[in-house]
Amino acid sequence: MTDKKTLFIDGREVEFTDEPNLLEVIRKAGMNVPTFCYRPDLTSFGACRMCVVEIEGRGIQSSCTMPPEAGLKVHLNTEKTRRIRKTVLELLLANHDKSCLTCDKSGNCELQQYAEEYGIKTIRYPDKAPDEYLPVDDSSPSLVRDPNKCILCGACVRACTEFQGHSVLGFANRGSKTVVQPMNGRPLGQVDCVNCGQCAAVCPTGALTIKSDIENVWREITNKDKKVVVQMAPATRVAIGEMFGLEPGENSIKKMNAALRKIGFDLIFDTNFSADLTIMEEATEFLERLKSGQNLPLFTSCCPAWVKYLEDQHPDMLHHLSSCKSPMSMLSPVLVELVPKYFNVERENLTVVAIMPCTAKKYECKRPELSHNGRPDTDFVLTTQELGRMIKEAGINFNAIEGEDADSPFGEYSGAGTIFGASGGVAEAAVRTAYEFATGEILQDVDIKDMRGTSNRSRDIELDLKGTKLVVRVVSTLKEAEKAIREIKEGKAPFQMLEVMACPGGCINGGGQPRSCDDSRIKGERAEGLYREDSELGLRKSHMNPSIQKLYQEYLEHPNSHKAHEILHTVYTNKFAGSYKDI
Questions:
Q1: Same-domain status, 520 and 444
Q2: Phi–psi pair at 578, nearest 5 degrees
Q3: DSSP state of 12
Q4: How many CB atoms lie within 10 A of CB 119?
Q5: Is 282 a catalytic site residue?
Q6: How far apart are CA 528 and CA 493, in angstroms?
Q7: Nearest 5°: phi and psi at 556?
Q8: Active-site annotation holder among 150, 324, 358, 507
């Protein structure tokens, strides 16, 4: 048991145990000091100096880098600390593009928030000269980088390095010329960025934002000649409510369905359905590889950031990657093929939109492999954040709206499809089906809890497939995936399946989700919301979904059939030569 110690904050005795720094002790005690650069899931940096406190006998210290010690007497809001914070804010604002009303982060910007809280009405320092402004970089399909709004907190640099081990972003130049930029100052769309969006998720200002498709989607919805269909990913339902004051993890799927209809979408389907479809194909593929002993371990292929990472960094490992498309990219061609038949609409008048927790899905939908006759199967991807804005723009009272069901026949799903949104969920769903496919017996206990968790980014789970011993490795973040790849190349890998999600904790913490970087508990609460829905559903195995069974009977024949491969599978190739940089 950890020994409790005490220190004093503004004269109040406060207990602490294993908190990594003074800032966490302050927050645990129900108080706070502002910070730009600190994120609980990243290393402490101490760059912004906003979180300074005054400690008796120690003077001014940054609370995010100061370890707690018994007996410390800490003061949060002395004359010195307030003066330092206000000076920092003034200096940042003097060097900042202050077009706040038209900024994508307006109303959700920490610099804007603290300037108001600290009453900054005048700035004593001269503004940046017009010729000092740098061009905005919108070359990425997923993100927009505006260096004029960067405050050099370094959170994006650390997220890229510590989560993905990739270092796409870094500091360049010195002194007043210091900037954060991609390698060699190149546009973001021309470097090996995997589009995960974690840099934008931790950015406190509008320096890194999601590339919006809101206006494109409104244009399609208001076009009377178009029928606009939409699908939404598992993780979106347990996060969208946060934009309207609901608790993280609260399942808002029925409210989402209703809001989407009010916005003007013609048909609403659930990507959970195609998550079940993915399991049918991937579980079958895994068992075939297990039987032949070839191309093991199998890599899951649901995460587009992970797929791009393999293409860019380890093209020699692509034969391990499942040929299955992601659930989004499975459902879209099914809709393109069957909605015209079921709902009497011409293909050229059909628009397919996906609501995703992931900025990399914007990149994925533009991949040439996921197009037909030169047109993408998924026309537009909106993130959870973008959908929240559309709901607000449409004047919909999300909290008061009555819930509605998705449309048939692609709205029915199992609990296995739901848990795709959390790290370990794809592997758990696959095992539920693979066990019954392989043994012909019913898996009684479907809750494989060893596969679950948002804090441990790598874990090995041993399974017994009726005498066949299996090891599944579940990792989140590409930094952990890189370690697994090294084990494979060194011949030391003990696992036969590798599930990879690029975002810490999985899709529930995707770059397109509402902000969660200030509170590590939010990931766990979102994941728990998915597992709660799984436990409450009557269907908990993908292959038991009657709508999936019907789709195979009437259209796909059987898992891994020629027809299924034509619609639901793809081939990934070596993009190292740079042919993909223009996407």
A1: yes
A2: 100, 10
A3: E
A4: 9
A5: yes
A6: 30
A7: -100, -5
A8: 507
Give the pLDDT confidence of 110-147 residue by residue, as tens digits.
Answer: 999 999 999 999 999 888 888 889 999 999 999 999 99
Residue 381 identity (one-letter amino acid): V
Buried b (16+ CB within 10 A) or exposed e, 407-428: beebbbbbbbbbbbbbbbbbbb
- Is 309 found in the same domain as 355? yes
> Whose CA is closest to 441, among 417, 411, 464?
464
Which residue in the list 308, 361, 479, 541 is annotated as catalytic? 361
Length of the chain: 583
**Which domain, by its residues, includes 18?**
5-77
Annotation says 322 is catalytic: yes
In a domain, 574, yes or no: no
Would residue 386 show up in a list of annotated catalytic residues for this protein? no
Angle at 428 between CA 249 and CA 502, to 5 degrees: 65
The question of whether 281 is a catalytic residue gets the answer no
The crossing angle, in degrees rounded to 10, of helices 110-117 and 79-94 is 130
Which pair of tokens denotes residue 499? 């599930």
Q: Which of 369, 393, 462, 566 is catalytic?
A: 369
What is the per-residue pLDDT across 549-577, written as a single tens digit (0 to 9) for each? Answer: 999 999 999 999 999 999 999 998 776 54
pLDDT in tens, 474-484: 999 999 999 99
The answer to whether residues 31 and 118 belong to one domain is no
Residue 583 lies in a domain: no
CATH (domain of 330): 3.40.50.1780
**Number of domains into which the chain is organized:** 3
What are the beta bridge partners of residue 356?
383
The one catalytic residue in 110, 220, 364, 480 is 364
Q: Is residue 351 part of a domain?
A: yes
Does residue 256 sit within a domain? yes
- Clarify whether residues 221 and 362 are in a common domain: yes
Of 162, 285, 412, 533, the active-site residue reads: 285
Catalytic residue status for 361: yes
CATH number at residue 55: 3.10.20.740
